[in-house]
Structure formats: C-alpha cells, structure tokens
Amino acid sequence: MLKQSFFTQRRQALAQQLANNSAAIVFSAQEKTRSNDTEYHFRQDSTFYYFTGFTEPEAVLVMVKRDEQLQSVLFNREKDELQEIWHGRRLGQAAALEQFDIDQALSVEELSEKLPELVAGCDTIYHDFFDDNDSFIDDLLDSLKANPEYQAPQNLSDLRVISDEMRLVKQPQELEVMREAAKISSAAHTRAMQQCKAGMFEYQLEAEILHHFAMNGARFAAYNTIVGGGENACILHYTENESVLNDNELVLIDAGCELHGYAADITRTFPVNGKFTLEQKAIYELVLKAQIEAIKLLVPGNTIKMANDVAIEIMIKGLMELGILNGDVKKLIEEDAHRAFYMHGLSHWLGLDVHDVGDYGGKGRTRVLEPGMTLTVEPGLYFAAKPEINAKWHNIGVRIEDDILITKDGNEVLTKDVVKTVDEIEALMASS
C-alpha cells in the first residue's frame, strides 16, 4: 500500500509545475446509482487518488500556489452518525487533517462559500477540461466576477497536460504495487489453466480468477474479465462469459487485478483440453513470435510504433507461409492486410487506469520510451468463421499479453510468472 509520503511528494511535484499565483482544483469521483437506491461499488477518480490517497466520494482537493508556497485544502464529507450507520464510516475533517498531510480540511458543504475565497486573486485555475465539473468551474468564475471584492482568475488551464505526464512515469512506490498486482494476476491465470476442462462454463473460469484475486488481497478486477471460448475468442471485448467451453477449442482469458488502485492486464490463450491442435499451435506460435520480438524492441529510445511494425511484418509473413495471405510482403504491409486478423494495437500505457493516461505521440504512437513507463504488449490474431477463410482456421482467436516496465537497460516483464510457450502450457495443464 502506498504511504502518505508518496501523495505528499506528488502534490509537491505538481506544485513545481504550476504557475505562480495559481490554483489547481481536483474533484473526486461520485457514487453512481446501479438501480433504484443501490449504488455501484465506489472507485475513486484516479487523478484525485494520485494526489491525495483519499478514497471517499464527494471530495475536492484545492492547491493554491502563491509566492512559490503551496497550500493544500481538502473538502470532504462531515462525520454523520446516522449516515455512517447506514452507509459506512466517514473520515471527517479532524481525521483527514491528521492523516493526509494537508494544510486544511473543510466540510464539502462549505465548498461554494470557501472556494471563491481561496482562489480569488489567482491568475490561473487548473482543472480537468471536458469533465463533469466544467459547469462548476464556470459557476465559480461567474461568482468571482460578480463580486467586486474578488479578482477573478483570467486564465484556465487543463490540469491533465501536467498530471497525465506525471502519471506516465511511475515512481518506485508505484512499481512495488504494480509488481505485486502482476504477481497475483499471473498466479490467477495459472490457476485458470490448471482448473480448465471441457464442459465448464466460461463464468466458472472467471470465478476461479476472481477468487484468486480476492484471496490474495486484490478484491476487484481492474476491468471486466474476458473469458472467451472458441468463436467467442474472436470478439475482442467479449464479457458475457456465459458459454460452455468445448473440447478441441481454445479459450482466451484477458484478466488482471486491481491492487491499491493499480492495474495488471494479462491475456493468455490455451486449449480447453490441454492440447493444441496443429492449426491452433501454428497461429499461437506466430503470435508468440511477434510478441517476443516486439518486447525486445520496447526499450529506452525506441517507440511503440517500431515494435508494432516488426510485429505486423512477422505476422504477415507467417500468414503467408500458412496460406492465409498471398502477395508481396511490402504491399501487404502498405495495404494493412493484417487488419482483417489483427484489428487492435500492440500496446497501451498501464497504471492507475488499465488504459492509463499519457501521450502516445499521435496515432502513430511515436512517443520515445523512457525508464519508468509501464505498458502492455499484446499482439493477436483472430479468425472468425467467414467463407473467405479456410474452415480449418475458423474460430481460432489468440492474444498473448504481458505487462512490462521500461528500465534504463531495457525492460522488465512484470508478468513473466505465467507460462506462455506451447510446451509450458501443455505441461502445466497435463500436470493438473
């Protein structure tokens, strides 16, 4: 679990990048209704958590920088005995001030009254543009302009320009949590391989994974778990998980836990009965080759695009050798011929969000990689039952995904504990 010193350091690092005589306003997430008078389980806004470590809804962090000095104020819910009996404990202001290394804690009920006083006279307000709180910021500025005692800020700046870049490069404390999340998630995938057998339902394998997450300290998945058998493996974001797992089919599992706010994201594909057919093995080993070569290229100074280009070339050449594609390699690459079978990208940032924030260098993903960046590597090939594809490839869907950390010397595969070669998978499943 992250120590409070981490969040204090993140606020200090943010303050160094704020203009003098400015204020940054960061809003918590809000509870969302599931049905009638029940709510979904609350999950804190990632950026708010990154700067506070505070996990309750209805909260606002205000950071005011004047004369190069930082003042941090947290607005949060008051203690309320009746509400706490029904809905759970609230920290309140006194405990928040004691626990969260802030300068002041005020009731969120006082926000409309106190916030104008805090930010009046500032030149700039930073907040996340285009979110649900834009209207609140507009109302704040209107109230400041309407009051002759206050000087309203003249500039608005998108806080995400700074905060997203901060979150992109992980700190040592974050990496400790991410390594543990990867370890728990890897073991869950191993458990799924060991428990899998023909006749099970996809949701039963999902249950094995979620059980392992919770029993090892990660109560929730980082995203909706995908367990797709046979033709369902060819649906990229399949989450129904309701079908029977059949003999002689592959099952694709995309699952990762969330630990102390941080996500893991792993995909493994394996045969339901523990033994790859010749066609399944051919596609699987082609995807694995593409992934292994891509990982080699994901090092400081290189880009995701460089690795993706190599993965695409490997898969196109492999598909030609298998008779699935025909023509000139260079032309097939120029025509994006792989898109019929590999529809998604190679990689995305990973952190507090499973698809984490941070600039990729445009659609081409030409951002130069730096130590401390964490990302996935996930090539895939999918063959739905279409008449233009030889029937022997029908309903084979393969994706292999690992999480890596860019290091000064290359990279570290955080999810290396879960097997992924054909021989390793078959041996593990046979021993079960």
Summarize the structure.
This protein is 37% helix and 19% strand. It is α+β, with helices and mostly antiparallel strands and 432 residues long.
What labels describe this entry?
3-stranded antiparallel β-sheet, 37% helix, 2 domains, single chain, Creatine Amidinohydrolase, Chain A, domain 1, Creatine Amidinohydrolase, 432 residues, 6-stranded mixed β-sheet, alpha+beta, 13 helices
Give a description of the structure:
With 432 residues, the chain is an alpha+beta fold. The protein has 2 domains: 164 residues, 3-Layer(aba) Sandwich (Creatine Amidinohydrolase, Chain A, domain 1); 262 residues, Creatinase/methionine aminopeptidase superfamily (Creatine Amidinohydrolase), CATH 3.90.230. The chain is 37% helix and 19% strand. A 6-stranded mixed sheet has the order 6-5-4-1-7-8, sandwiched between helices. A hairpin with a 2-residue loop joins strand 18 and strand 19. Helix 10 runs antiparallel to helix 11. 39% of the residues are buried. The mean pLDDT is 97.
SSE order and pairing:
Elements: H1 4-17, E1 22-27, E2 33-35, E3 38-39, H2 46-52, E4 60-66, E5 69-76, H3 81-87, H4 92-99, E6 104-107, H5 111-119, E7 124-127, H6 134-146, E8 155-158, H7 160-168, H8 172-195, H9 202-215, E9 220-221, E10 226-229, E11 250-255, E12 257-259, E13 262-263, E14 266-271, H10 278-297, H11 304-321, H12 329-334, E15 374-377, E16 380-383, E17 396-399, E18 402-407, E19 410-413, H13 422-430
